Amino acid sequence: MNSFFDLFFGPGHTPIREQMDVHITLDGDGHPRIEPLDGEAVSLSEEGSIKKVSVSRDRFFACGCAVATSQIGGMCNPCRKISCSIHHTRCAVPSCSRPLCLECSRFLEDVRVCSRCYEPLRRQLARQKLTRALLRPFTG
Ligand SMILES: [Zn+2]
Ligand SMILES: [Zn+2]
Ligand SMILES: [Zn+2]
């Protein structure tokens, strides 16, 4: 797991102590999946100074659900935040269907769409309702 800490120390460092907390879950096929949770490393840099770094991973998805107990859903297209599988969705307009988090979703009755599709769809639905209302006296 050196590369994890190389991000902070650069490639020339001499690790003195590295420690990592991991979370192991089983994937759908029963293979263990290792997720780093927290880590700490003490390292001697090229200039001879001792550096210590602590890493803590996001414990919660953007929707507020805990990473430890929720499945990952996906990355939102407009804002690039990660939501859990329950709160992550796609725009309901088939020609768009971009991935959406809860925050970037607009609700039209019980349909979730992106902000780009919201206005056109809202107008279309309003037109349909109007048409239905206008036809009602004739259709009974
Ligand atoms: Zn969630
Ligand atoms: Zn978003
Ligand atoms: Zn859309």
Task: Characterize this entry briefly.
24% of the residues lie in helices and 36% in strands.
Tag the structure with descriptive keywords.
binds zinc ion; three-stranded antiparallel β-sheet; 9 strands; Herpes Virus-1; 2 helices; 140 residues; alpha+beta; elongated
Outline: elongated
CATH architecture descriptor name of the largest domain: 2-Layer Sandwich
SS-based structural class? alpha+beta
Mean pLDDT: 85
Low-confidence stretches: none
**What is the number of strand segments?**
9
For the largest beta-sheet, the strand count, sense and barrel status come to: 3 strands, antiparallel
Order of helices and strands: HEEEEEEEEEH
Helix percent band: 10-25%
The side-by-side strand order for the widest beta sheet comes to 1-2-3
Number of helices: 2
CATH class label of the largest domain: Alpha Beta
Proportion in β-strands:
35-45%
Count of distinct structural domains: 2
CATH topology of the largest domain: Herpes Virus-1
Q: Between the first and last Cα atoms, what is the distance in angstroms?
A: 71 Å
- Compute the gyration radius: what is it? 24 Å
- Which cofactor or ligand species appear? zinc ion
